[in-house]
Amino acid sequence: MDIKKLFNDDNAVSPVIGVILMVAITVILAAVIASFVLGLGDSAGDAAPQFSIECDTSNDEITHTGGDTLSNPSDFDLLNAGSGSIDTSQSEITAGDQINDGGSIDGDEQIRWNNPDGGSSSIVAEC
Question: What pTM value is reported for the model?
Fold first, then answer.
């Protein structure tokens, strides 16, 4: 056996690296295709809006004080309220706007967001 030829012969390196790359590409493609077929990409859905409120029980007012704009007020419910509800006459509610319609509130209110895609809801603000 020729020692010089052994040190200069690197033919086996290229096929091993090629096989490893082909396996990696196959696994990545399979994962991407599986996520589309199984619909895992759509499971995240819409994220609930993040905003803060201030409750004034003496004037029966709930005011949006900052955060996301409530672009569709009909997606929200006012829970634990006396006779108050979300003001849906506005097309959107931004910081500084009153959220409720002026009915009575007692300070235990929660604002629930109902995902327009259906199925899920979450409490996004509390007094």
Answer: 0.60
Transcribe the chain into DSSP letters: --HHHHHH--TTHHHHHHHHHHHHHHHHHHHHHHHHHHTGGGTT-PPPP-EEEEEETTTTEEEEEEES-BS-GGGEEEES-SS--B-TTSS-B-TTSB-B-S----S--EEEEEPTTSS-EEEEEE-
pLDDT of residue 65: 92
Of 89, 116, 113, 108, which Cα lies nearest the Cα of 100? 89
Q: From 82, 75, 126, 79, select the one nearest 106 (Cα to Cα).
A: 82
Write the pLDDT tens digit of every residue in 48-88.
888 999 988 888 888 999 999 888 888 888 888 677 788 88
Q: Tell me if 18 sits within 8 A of 90, measured CB to CB.
A: no
| Amino acid sitting at position 86 | I
Q: Which of 79, 52, 98, 29 lies closest to 88 in space, CA to CA?
A: 98
Q: Taking all residues of the chain, what is their mean pLDDT, rounded to a whole number?
A: 83
* Cα(122)–Cα(76) distance, integer angstroms: 10
